[in-house]
Amino acid sequence: MTPGRWTLWLVAMGAGTCIALSAGSAVALADTADSGPPSDHGTSQDATSGSDAGTSDKADDKADDKAEAAKSSSKDEPEDDDGTDSLRDDDRPSASHSGDTKGADKYGTDPDGATQDDDHDAPASTVDEPTTAEDDQLTAQPDTSVTSPPAVDTDTITAPTKAQDPMQALATMATNFWSSLGVAPAVARPAPTAEPVAAASTVTGVRTGHSTLTIPVGDKGFNTNADWYFPTQADGSVSATGVIWLQHGFLSDKSFTSDLAKSLSQQTNSIVVAPNVPSFPLRCSGCSLNGVQMQQAVATMFDGDQEALNSSAMKAGFSGTLPEQFILAGHSAGGGFAAGVGGFYATNPNQRRLRGVVMFDGVARDDALPDALERLGTVPVYQIAAPPQAWNAFGSTTSQLVAARPGQFVGVTLANGSHVDALIGSNPIVDFVMQLVTRFSPRGNTAAVYTLANGWINDLYQGLGPTDGTGIYGAPDEYLVLGNAAGVVLAPAPTVDVDRYLGTWYEVGSVKQFFSLGLVNTKAEYSLNPDGSIRVVNSGNYFFSNGPLSRIVGVALPVNAANNKLNVTFFGPASANPPGNYWIVDLDPDYQWAIVSDSTGFSGFLLTRDPVISDELYRELLNRASVKGVRGWITRTRQPAAESAAVSV
């Protein structure tokens, strides 16, 4: 690429980033402005009291009604007379608001005069109104309301066409810009079809509400904003199986988890509460995601009659009493928070309501997770992980979970996954910026997250698990095909039997290095030297079968007891000192294939006993390499000699 083209590329990248970030800031400002008191330009809502079924008069839609409008379909559907949004059959549950509210107090003021969580540190925080109920139906429902709508003097009522939200236009422009450069960010996709338990099969939609939640930490308690998601049945009633506390991650906000929360509520028949918890202890000591005092306080909220939770749910439009059994879940640092809360809850031997912990690429600080796991005892803890990357501390928490529960099913890593796989779909602009900061989420990964989590939670409510549940599990290191995505069951690094590893391995793919460019028929032959070291002979031809031969001889020594890390050198004696430069990160139990990398992850080799393999196996090895932390670009290595022999036969 010429210097001029490099300059054009960098300018284009900067312009696209500015568009996305500016649009994201506008969404945050629009959301905050619309959810506060009426402003001078006259935007307001008609608030009328409604029942738990969410039936109420519909307020006139505004083009800038909510920041959530940025995630709605670019072509809005007409609204039904019963006040719920009509959806196409292939639509996901909508996040559009009905405009119904209960109560007259604005969200910024608590009846007791307590301070709200106004200094929240998320980049796109939301200021909510209390007792707001919204319906998110999966399919268009006929109007079965007994109360007829007000009489109108026209014969036909046509719902007005909504103007396209300017934030949606900006999001589309940014997405199209990056797509034109060959970068395709993930966008909202249809939720996967899960196999819910019988109770969840009666859920027809999800109603959302907003209220304050008081966490008993600090001298006066910590009041924060919370979103509630209520699974509704066909008659509008709520008969939930359990409660899920869903915690956002570091420098994040409850709104980032909205699509995930709706899926969990709908597919597991759960009441989901998603509160804001600050990333830094600015309000009081310990008032943060990583604060021990905050985690201990949340644990006490599930004791006894759950007064604070029931009070907040009631203010959000729920009548009745919350179910007693519950799940703790969270994304990133919120996953570490969920595990920490679970550990403190489990220290009370009289409390047995916690059914499990589900982390979405959860990250815990230092040794917080091992301590929590010890307190949790036999309570299941599952992780849906992304491959090692900066935003998940390079998989340190996942490794701790695997080490703490050897031989048990503890989760799945999604191939080529992003740290934000679980969050895609809540807002197109936020989605784009999050992926720009972390990495782009592959097609199908978000649906796979939903399928895994919903299946596990349905099983947890019934006391089922990997051996008798209906969710997706597997043996350690088992490869899973998940629709358009793939994953590998969490497992420790392999223990290598050196004698079985010896012999000939064919390279079918690798991260090409300068000396391997153009090499074909590449293979490695390992044998024992008299001194116990391993003799290494690498060879191949340049460009074609009978091309110039390349051959080099070296020596290798293991540097750890598991023999999965070695030092290989082609000049001088080998060293047995860690960390080694030849890491066997994945290995077939029958020693028919191996994946080799190093401590950086920028080198990678796909080795097989057979020189010619199927496309299916090659694709699996590529996905496994991603899961095991290989970050370099692997391309296929041709074996023309073996291919010609196979054709002749």
Automatic annotation (TrEMBL):
Decide whether keyword Transport is in the record.
no
Record-linked Pfam families: Lipocalin_2
Q: From which residue to which does the signal peptide run?
A: 1-30
InterPro entries recorded for this chain? AB_hydrolase_fold (IPR029058), Calycin (IPR012674), Lipocalin_bac (IPR002446), Lipocalin_Blc-like_dom (IPR047202), Lipocalin_CS (IPR022272), Lipocln_cytosolic_FA-bd_dom (IPR000566)
Q: Name one GO biological process term.
A: response to stress
Q: Which parts of the sequence are annotated with region: Disordered?
A: 30-163
The segment(s) forming the Lipocalin/cytosolic fatty-acid binding domain are: 496-629
What spans are recorded as compositionally biased (Polar residues)?
A: 138-148
- Please identify the protein, giving its name as recorded: Bacterial lipocalin
Q: Tell me what organism the protein belongs to.
A: Mycolicibacterium tokaiense
Identify the coding gene: blc
